[in-house]
C-alpha cells in the first residue's frame, strides 16, 4: 500500500523561491535521514489503528454484523448454489475497510507537519492528487458494486454488501482522519527511539539489518534442509 502514500506526497507542488527554502539553515543534507520521528509517529499509529480494525473485523465481525455465526476457516466462501456466504461477505468487508483506511490516510500524508491538525489546508493546491484520489475511490467502489452480479463476484472474489455495511466501511475509513488528529497529540519524544532506525544505509550493525540478516540466514538453512530431505 506504499504506492498510495507516494501518490499523496510525490505529486505535491514544489515551493519555489520562498525565504524558508532559500535559507541555508533549513537546507537538508543528503546525509540526513528521510524518515523523521514525526513520520514514524504517523506510520506506527495509523498502522496500529488499521491492525486493530482488521483484527476486530476478522475475529468479532461475525458476531457484530451477522445474525448467524460461522467458522472463519471451515465455512466455505460459497454455498452449494454458488452464492456468497457470510464468511465471504466478511472478507469483502475487511478488504473494503482496509483499502478505504489507506485511501483516507493519503489525505493525512499530504500534510507532514508534526503539529498541523488541519489536513485540508492545502486542499486545492494539487488537482492531480484529487484526480487520482477520486479515480481510485471510483474503482474501489466499482469492485464492491460489481459483486452484485454473478460474473463480477466470481471475477473479483467479492460479495454483495448491504448499505449499512458499506456505510460502516466508509466510516471506519474516514476515521483515519480523526486518528491523525489524535496522534498529533502524542509527544514526539515518545518516538525518539526511531532515530536509531536507519532504513537508508547498508550498515550491517543497524538492528533492523541485523535481524533481517538472521531471518534470511534462517530461511536459507530451512530451505536447504527441506531440499536435502527431498533428495
Description:
The chain is mainly α and 231 residues long. It is 59% helix and 0% strand. The protein is globular. The model has no long low-confidence stretch (mean pLDDT 82). The chain crosses the membrane at residues 43-66, 86-104, 124-143, 163-183. This is Cation-transporting P-type ATPase C-terminal domain-containing protein. It comes from Strombidium inclinatum.
Secondary structure elements and pairings:
Blueprint: H1 2-10, H2 19-22, H3 37-65, H4 86-109, H5 127-145, H6 150-156, H7 163-183, H8 207-230
The gist of it:
By secondary structure, this protein is an all-alpha fold.
**Global morphology:** globular
- Helix count equals 8
Tally of discrete structural domains = 1
Q: How many individual β-strands?
A: 0
* N- to C-terminal distance: 40 Å
Strand % is under 5%
- The parts where pLDDT drops under 50 for at least 5 residues are none
Residue-averaged pLDDT: 82
Task: Give the % helix.
Answer: 55-70%
Which value, in Å, is the CA radius of gyration?
22 Å
Largest sheet, strands/sense/barrel:
none
Category by helix and strand content: mainly alpha
SSE succession: HHHHHHHH
Amino acid at each position: 500500500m506504499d504506492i498510495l502514500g507516494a501518490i499523496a506526497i510525490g505529486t505535491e507542488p514544489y515551493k519555489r523561491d520562498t525565504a524558508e527554502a532559500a535559507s541555508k539553515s533549513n537546507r537538508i543534507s543528503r546525509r540526513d535521514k528521510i524518515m523523521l520521528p514525526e513520520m514514524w509517529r504517523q506510520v506506527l499509529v495509523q498502522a496500529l489503528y488499521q491492525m486493530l480494525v482488521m483484527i476486530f473485523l476478522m475475529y468479532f465481525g461475525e458476531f457484530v454484523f451477522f445474525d448467524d455465526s460461522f467458522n472463519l476457516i471451515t465455512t466455505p466462501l460459497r454455498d452449494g448454489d454458488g452464492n456468497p456466504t457470510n464468511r465471504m461477505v466478511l472478507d469483502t468487508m475487511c478488504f473494503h475497510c482496509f483499502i478505504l483506511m489507506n485511501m483516507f490516510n493519503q489525505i493525512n500524508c499530504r500534510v507532514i507537519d508534526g503539529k498541523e491538525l488541519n489536513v485540508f489546508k492545502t486542499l486545492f493546491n494539487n488537482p492531480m492528487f484529487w484526480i487520482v484520489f477520486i479515480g481510485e475511490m471510483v474503482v474501489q467502489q466499482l469492485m464492491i458494486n460489481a459483486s452484485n452480479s454473478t460474473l463480477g463476484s466470481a471475477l473479483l472474489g467479492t460479495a454483495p454488501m448491504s448499505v449499512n455495511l458499506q456505510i460502516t466501511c466508509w466510516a471506519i475509513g474516514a476515521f483515519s482522519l480523526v486518528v491523525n488528529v489524535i496522534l498529533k497529540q502524542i509527544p514526539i519524544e515518545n518516538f525518539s527511539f526511531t532515530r536509531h532506525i536507519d532504513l537508508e544505509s547498508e550498515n550491517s550493525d543497524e538492528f533492523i539489518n541485523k535481524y533481517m540478516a538472521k531471518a534470511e540466514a534462517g530461511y536459507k538453512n530451512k530451505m536447504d534442509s527441506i531440499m536435502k530431505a527431498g533428495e
